[in-house]
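Hi support team,

I've been running sequence recovery on a batch of backbones for a student project. Most finish fine, but this one hangs at about 90% for roughly twenty minutes before it completes. I'm not sure whether the input is malformed or the queue is just slow. I've pasted the structure tokens below so you can try to reproduce it. Let me know if you need the job ID as well.

Thanks,
M.K.
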């Protein structure tokens, strides 16, 4: 790669979390669990929950507006909108089309990326290809989720984990050394049943029996997912570093998918990286799936955890299975 290469540079970030907060104490009233169990096993203290009439695009729009403002761009100038979501407004039109309409981004091509919790890193990868090829000069990449809409609130093994929210990033084409250096994405569909929301698709139509069995809800084999997540996140992070000839000491900040504090701690340990390099906001937001990385990125940048010229490593894992990493110079 030469310094004159066209790269996708992060020009602005934004996030939006719904107002309502569901605490572990609230969950203690709903299922047989305890604050101590949730904190010890996941690191989650509270999560934001969208009102019943709020959709993924409703959360995406304020996050996108904030990112556009930060980038000094108007919605009308955006050429590509990608929304990573596994809780879309509806099957179709895509959530990205709803976001386009609500923003008034009339020039943009808009489509969704379905890769569960890896949706943002997949989206970043896709946008990067369009920008590097010269097809588009900018892109709005969003992660937006309303997992509360697919959670079984009587299932203690999943309902304590997830939260709602959205994060957005504006990418701009720019020549130079800053921007996305590389992304690395992977899939393994043989383990689909470890983490899935089978409801209502063409394989599982909405019959009365299906509804009675609550098959429209998220299902997860937590402990198996846990082990694979650590292995794949470590491998994806190592690949990004090796590909770019980067040492651990070169990295200013790691933004991992916020699935579980113990997963993040173990990924840090296995990579031989100082845990303090890993940004964590899971305590207050829980697992927001595709929204998790852009929410954390926006928080971290606003806290001044990284600045111009710094290297950021993102690493994600999700249902599919899907996983991946991105190395970015701010
Ligand atoms: N409160 C209290 N007890 C709970 C509980 C809860 N909310 N959820 C599960 N338990 C119980 C289980 O029923 C089980 O009880 P048993 O031993 O009597 O059968 C016990 O705790 C241990 O369950 P297990 O699933 O083995 O716990 P764990 O240490 O693996 O932690 C997760 C569970 C879900 C926190 C953990 O597996 C995890 O984080 N997995 C990855 C999830 C994830 O990240 N998914 C998204 C990927 S993007």
């Amino acid at each position: 790669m030469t310094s004159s290469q066209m790269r996708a540079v992060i020009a602005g970030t934004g996030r939006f979390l719904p107002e309502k907060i569901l605490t572990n104490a609230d969950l203690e009233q709903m299922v047989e669990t305890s604050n101590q169990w949730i904190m010890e096993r996941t690191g989650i203290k509270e999560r934001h929950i969208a009102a019943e009439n709020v959709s993924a695009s409703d959360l995406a729009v304020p996050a996108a507006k904030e990112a556009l403002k930060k980038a000094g761009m108007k919605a009308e100038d955006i050429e590509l909108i990608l929304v990573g979501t596994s809780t879309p407004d509806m099957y179709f039109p895509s959530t990205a089309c709803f976001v386009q309409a609500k923003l008034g981004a009339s020039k943009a091509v808009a489509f969704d990326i379905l890769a569960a919790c890896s949706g943002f890193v997949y989206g970043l990868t896709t946008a990067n290809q369009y920008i590097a090829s010269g097809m588009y000069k900018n892109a709005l990449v969003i992660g937006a989720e309303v997992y509360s809409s697919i959670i079984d609130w009587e299932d203690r093994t999943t309902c304590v984990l997830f939260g709602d929210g959205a994060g957005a990033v504006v990418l701009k084409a720019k020549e130079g050394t800053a921007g996305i250096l590389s992304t690395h994405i992977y899939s393994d569909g043989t383990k689909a049943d470890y983490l899935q929301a089978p409801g209502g698709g063409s394989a599982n139509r909405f019959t009365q029996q299906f509804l009675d069995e609550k098959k429209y809800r998220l299902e997860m084999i937590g402990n198996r997912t846990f082990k694979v997540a650590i292995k794949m996140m470590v491998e994806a992070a190592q690949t990004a570093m090796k590909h770019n000839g980067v040492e651990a000491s070169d990295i200013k900040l790691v933004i991992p998918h916020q699935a579980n504090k113990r997963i993040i701690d173990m990924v840090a340990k296995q990579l031989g990286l100082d845990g303090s390099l890993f940004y964590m906001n899971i305590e207050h937001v829980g697992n927001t799936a595709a929204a998790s990385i852009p929410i954390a990125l926006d928080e971290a940048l606003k806290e001044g955890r990284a600045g111009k010229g710094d290297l950021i490593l993102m690493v994600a894992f999700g249902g599919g299975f899907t996983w991946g990493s991105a190395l970015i110079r701010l």
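--
Follow-up from support: It reproduced on our side and the slowdown came from queue contention, not your input. The CA atoms of residues 234 and 267 lie 6 Å apart. No action needed from you.
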